[in-house]
From TrEMBL, chain A:
Residue intervals of the ABC transporter domain: 18-248
Pfam family, one: ABC_tran
SUPFAM superfamilies: P-loop containing nucleoside triphosphate hydrolases
Domain of life: Bacteria
Membrane topology: Peripheral membrane protein
Gene Ontology BP annotations: response to antibiotic
Entry protein name: ABC transporter ATP-binding protein
Any one GO MF annotation of this record: ATP hydrolysis activity
Compartment(s) of residence: Cell membrane
Alphabetical UniProt keywords: Antibiotic resistance, ATP-binding, Nucleotide-binding, Transport
UniProtKB/TrEMBL annotation, chain B:
Protein name: Transporter
UniProt entry tagged with the keyword Membrane: yes
Taxonomic source organism: Cellulomonas chitinilytica
Keywords carried by this UniProt record: Membrane, Transmembrane, Transmembrane helix
Taxonomic lineage from the root: Bacteria, Bacillati, Actinomycetota, Actinomycetes, Micrococcales
Transmembrane domains' residue ranges: 21-43, 55-79, 100-127, 133-152, 172-192, 231-249, 300-317, 323-340, 368-388, 400-423, 444-469, 475-496
Keyword tRNA processing part of the UniProt annotation: no
Length: 266, 518
């Protein structure tokens, strides 16, 4: 749906936490994102779903200042990200997917580094680092080099880095990948209370169930376009989000495809 | 299967070339280099065979032994050497190991080093044209020799990646292995001082000719000497060498297929380190992070280890000469220039800086401060100690001026360079025996441009310092110190500012490049 409609349905006239308008991005011959418009209301828990290669990561990278769009604007709480990157990045918390961390630092050092880069003072950084390590069950590994962390622990410490400066908008690309169920539940609680206190969260995920349970808004992206966007109930209608997603994206193949794969055939 | 693997190698090469123009340039440069080496070897061998056939046994065995040794040891230290077809990637395919081993061995010949080695080996066989039987023996020997080269290099690689599971150990070993190689050249250059008679050389060649390194290459010489038994015996040594190496490689491959390299143990560090000591600001944080990396990241730690190597080389080559005055400036250059690949070394972790509300100059200055804390004392020591120790105390101001000037200028130029160009480098924590392919020519080009720029900017100081030392003029020496420091500070400030602005403009492009690297 066009952005104007969403804005009209908002309870107040405060600018949305994130407004993407006409984002395009091309890599060589491949157009990864082809004109994406998206409105993320302030205080929402927004899910971004789409098949592999749909342009989720590219969109989120452009929305967080990690990737320059070819065309289009990104407004974070009404401020143009690409016109004032340094000013706007201060209110953004980012967890990108598929990139490394400064993993020769210990967990505590890495979170401290993120805090100090965002201009926090020493006491605040130290206190928040300790809180985050405890909340994410990393306190025992605070002095271990991040390079020796497991995949799930690395995700968690990256999440801590995204949270340490108390951003107004949190953009998380695949935050639950490789995270164990207990930690995932803890992270969901942290994010839910953050949203309840007025923060805005955007998560991308492959797991429809999770998005349906956790998020209040959702956008379905495929082939660099937004196929549907709105509240979870609006998008899924009567069906489950998973069924609606498959219906929107298509690409289901009949079960007769790999007849030779039946083990009974020989 | 063998044909498949060779075709795979060719496809990888072609697709690599399609990826970027730099790959083509890189291949062209490598081919040119190989051609020059080949031309020299060819001319030398043919010349020897025409004019001094009596030297042929010595020359061929030495050349062949060096070739085998190089193939066996290069995988240990060259981070960028070709390993595009990593046996670990075939673990999941049901390929018989024998076929895999054969295919990988033949595939290793595809590429500039393989082709050059083969052609050199053929030339080595061809030089026995006076005696057809020796040519035949030479061909057999050369084939065995090339096989030894390839199997030896694969054995080294496989053994190393299997044995060295512990990260820290691997990192230290990588450093230790390189040191003797760096020192090899200078030591050899001094070898003429030792009294090496022709007799010694002959004995060395005799031993080499019976050793696994040189046996294959010594076969034709034995044939021309009319020593068929000796020829057969050397052939046997060569055959056994290839077989033993192949078995070790095969076993190693079998072992690593089911026991992939696995990190053992984990490293701990207490407290916040530099983060707790430096001011709590973005600038302090960047500096603290870089300082931590200078110690903990093997790629940086390697530069620290190498700081004393250059003076050592100079001292070995030219003890108590005026050349030692250059130790300070040259160390200064390498230390200052060492941050030119900083963003490449960060790799995709650089996103942390892009996502933070960080000014470009803060990023630049933090990196400069970190290397200054470590490097400036070293530069001062290496400028003062050799100068005073060789009795050139009067030249100290000029040497100091040049050293400091070069250090600060190189820092300034490197600050701009690393904001403009990123290149694929060994990732932190990656197996040092693994490889990075591509981009090496882009690296070389940008490095050369940076070196030229630094040299050009330092030229006034160089001129003053050289004249001051030549004329023994204290006034000019003082002037060199003044000009060196003043120009150095200026270029550093300008470099950090320009580099900072360039970084703010280009940081997302740099990050995209870094993400796109394999």
């Amino acid at each position: 749906m066009p952005p104007e409609d969403v804005r009209a349905t908002l309870p107040d006239q405060a600018p949305p936490a994130l407004l993407l308008q006409g984002l395009w991005r091309r890599f060589g011959q491949k157009i990864a994102v082809a004109g994406i418009d998206l409105t993320v209301p302030a205080g929402s828990f927004y899910g971004l779903v789409g098949p592999n290669g749909a342009g989720k990561t590219t969109t989120l990278s452009m929305a967080t200042g990690l990737l320059q769009p070819d065309f289009g604007t990104v407004l974070v709480h009404g401020r143009d990200l690409w016109a004032d990157p340094v000013g706007v990045k201060a209110v953004l918390g980012v967890l990108p997917d598929g990139v490394r961390l400064f993993d020769r630092l210990t967990g505590a050092q890495l979170i401290t580094y993120a805090g100090l880069l965002h201009g926090l003072d020493r006491e605040t950084t130290a206190a928040r680092t300790a809180d985050l390590l405890a909340a994410l069950d990393l306190a025992a590994d605070a002095q271990t080099l991040v390079v020796d962390y497991s995949a799930g622990m690395t995700k968690k410490v990256a999440l801590a880095c995204a949270l340490v400066h108390a951003p107004r908008l949190l953009v998380l690309d695949e935050p639950f990948e490789a995270v164990d169920p207990v930690s995932a539940a803890n992270i969901r609680d942290i994010l839910a209370s953050y949203v309840a206190s007025g923060g805005t969260v955007i998560v991308s995920s492959h797991v429809m169930d999770l998005v349906q349970r956790m998020c209040d808004h959702v956008a379905v992206i495929a082939g660099g376009h937004v196929l549907a966007a709105g509240t979870v109930d609006e998008v899924r209608g009567d069906a489950s989000l998973e069924d609606r997603f498959v219906e929107l994206v298509g690409g289901r193949v009949g079960g007769e495809g790999l007849a030779w794969l039946r083990t009974s055939s020989d | 299967m063998v044909a498949h693997l060779v075709r795979l190698k060719l496809t990888l090469l072609r697709n690599g070339l399609r990826r970027s123009a730099w790959q083509i340039v890189g291949l062209a440069v490598a081919a040119l280099y190989g051609l020059v080496v080949l031309g020299l070897v060819f001319a030398g061998l043919v010349g020897t065979s025409v004019t001094r056939p009596d030297l042929l046994p010595t020359v061929t065995v030495l050349l062949g032994s060096v070739l085998v040794l190089a193939w066996a040891l290069v995988p240990l230290l060259a981070f960028g050497v070709d390993a595009t077809v990593d046996p670990a990637r075939f673990v999941l395919f049901p390929i018989p190991r024998r076929a895999l081993v054969t295919g990988l061995a033949i595939g290793a010949l595809v590429g500039v080093p393989g082709v050059v080695t083969t052609l050199v080996a053929l030339t080595v066989a061809g030089v026995w044209w006076r005696d057809p039987l020796a040519v035949v023996a030479g061909l057999v020997g050369s084939v065995l020799g090339v096989l030894t080269c390839i199997v030896a290099s694969r054995t080294t690689t496989t053994l190393m990646s299997t044995l060295l599971a512990k990260r820290r150990f691997r990192e230290i070993l990588a450093v230790l292995v390189v040191l003797p190689f760096i020192l090899l050249g200078p030591v050899l250059s001094q070898a003429h001082r030792l009294d090496v008679g022709a007799g010694t050389l002959d004995r060395v060649v005799l031993v080499l000719g019976w050793s696994p390194l040189g046996a294959a290459w010594a076969v034709p010489a034995a044939v021309t000497d009319g020593d068929p038994l000796g020829a057969l015996a050397r052939l046997a040594v060569a055959l056994v060498t290839v077989l033993v190496l192949a078995i070790v490689w095969d076993r190693g491959l079998a072992h690593s297929a089911v026991n992939p390299p696995h990190e053992q143990g984990s490293s701990k560090a207490h407290g916040l380190g530099w983060f707790g000591r430096l001011p709590a600001s973005p600038l302090g944080a960047v500096t603290a992070r870089c300082l931590t990396y200078w110690v903990r990241d093997p790629r940086y730690a390697m530069s620290i280890v190498f700081i004393p190597v250059f003076p050592l080389i100079m001292w070995v080559v030219a003890p108590d000469s005026q050349v030692l005055l250059l130790v300070g400036p040259v160390t200064a250059f390498f230390l200052g220039w060492s941050i030119s690949q900083d963003v490449s070394f960060d790799g995709t972790a650089f996103w942390t800086h892009v996502a933070a509300p960080l000014r470009g100059w803060t990023d630049r200055l933090g990196r400069v401060l970190a290397v200054t804390v470590l490097g400036l004392p070293a530069v001062l020591v290496f400028a003062v100690v050799p100068t005073v120790a060789t009795g050139h105390g009067g030249d100290l101001p000029a040497v100091l001026g040049l050293s400091i000037g070069v250090f600060l200028t190189a820092l300034g130029v490197a600050s701009v360079a690393s904001a403009l160009v990123v290149m694929p480098v060994q990732k932190v924590g990656e197996n040092p025996f693994g490889s990075r392919q591509g981009g090496s020519t882009a690296a070389v080009t940008s490095q050369l441009a940076g070196w030229a720029a630094t040299f050009g900017l330092v030229l006034p100081t160089i001129g003053l310092a050289v004249v001051a030392v030549q004329q023994g003029s204290a006034v000019l020496g003082g002037l060199a110190l003044l000009v060196g420091v003043a120009l150095g500070v200026t270029f550093l400030v300008v470099g950090v500012r320009i580099g900072g602005r360039a970084l703010e403009r280009r940081q997302t492009a740099l990050l995209s490049r870094l993400v796109s690297f394999p």
